[in-house]
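Technical annex B. To support the medicinal chemistry partners, we prepared a structural model of the target in complex with 5'-deoxyadenosine, based solely on the information shown next.
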Amino acid sequence: MSKKDIFQKILKKPASVSVEEVAWVLEDDSLNEPLFEIADEVRNLYLGKDVYLRGIIEFSNYCRNDCLYCGIRSSNSKVSRYRMSVDEILNTAKFIAENGCGTVVLQSGEDPFYNDEMIAEIVHRIKKLDVAVTLSIGERSFKEYKTWREAGADRYLMRHETADEELYKQVHPADDFNIRKRHLEMLKQLDYEVGTGCIVGLPHQDDLSLAKDILFTYEFDSDMVGIGPFIPHPDTPLGKEKPGSLMKTLKVIALTRLFLPDSNIPATTALGTIDPRGRQLALNCGANVIMPNFTPVFYRPRFTIYPNKVCIFESDAQCRDSIKDLIETAGYKAVESQGFRRRVHENSSRRI
Ligand code: 5AD
C-alpha cells in the first residue's frame, strides 16, 4: 500500500484501520500536505463552507479536580476564584443569542456549588432564547445529567483528554480513563450530542497515544471533538514542560475529520493561543466550529486553564468581530444556526 492510500482506507473502511497505521501518518511529515487537502475536501463535501458559532460563558473557575496540566486545578492557590450568579449567566446568554451565535456553552471547573436544580433552572431559562445549550461542567451523576437533559440541555462536552490509559493516570492521579468512558456512555445513553477530545503534546505522549485518541473518538462516534495543543501553565506541576506543536495538532484534527466526516470539530482557542494563525489553519484542515468567548471581561482573565489565552483583553464586540474576520479570511462563512450534527448514515454511500 502506498502511503497516500491510507487516506482512502480511512474514508472507505475506517473500522479496519489500525492504531499503528494512524501513528504512521502522524509521524511522517511528508504526508501533511495531502492530508490537509483531503481533510478540507471532506469537510467541504459534508458540511460546505459553514462555520458554526458557539458562544461560551466560563461561569465558575472553582474546581474540585487536580489535573496536572490545568491552571485552575484545586491545588493552585494563586487563582482568584469566582462564581457568576444565575442572573449574570442569563444576561450573558441573552447577549450571546443577540450576537448571532446559535449555541450557548456553559463551561466551568467541576464546581458542585451549582447543584442539579440551579443548573436545570439556568438551562431551562436559556432555552427560552431559542438557542442550543451545551454543558461543559465535568463529571456529575447520571441523575443530574438526566435532569439537565430534561430541562432542555442539548449537548455535553467532556473531553476524554487522553485515551492512553497510563498517561491518563499520570496526569489525573486520582482518576481512571474507564471512569471517564463510563460518563461519556451515560451522556450518550441520555441522547445528548456528546463531545470528546484530547490535548496534543502532553509530556510522554507519543504518536501511538495520539493514534489511540483518534480511534477512540471514531469508535465512540463522537458528535463533537475538541482538539488543542498542550500549553504549560507556570503554576502547575507541568509548568516547565514543552508546549504541544501546531503541526501535530493540525494533523490530529485533519485525521479526525477523515474518520468522522460529519462531526463538529472546533478550531480551538488553544490553537489560536500558540499561533496567531492557528484557528484559520484549523479551519483549512477540517475544523468547522469556532467558540467565541463571552465571559464578562471582568472574570475572563481568571479562567486561566493555560496562560495567554487569546481574546482575554478584548471587548465582546472586538472579540466577535475579530472572529467573523478570521472566518471570512480563511474562506468560510459564519452561520447563525444551532449547528446540530447532520449525520450521514453509515449505510449511505460515501461520496469520496
Ligand atoms: N493546555 C491545553 N489545554 C488544556 N486544558 C486544560 N488545561 C490545559 C492546558 N494547560 C483543556 C482540557 C479541558 C479543556 C477545557 O481545556 O482538555 O478539557
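Notes passed to the chemistry partners:
The mean pLDDT is 95.
Residues 158 and 352 are 30 Å apart (CA to CA).
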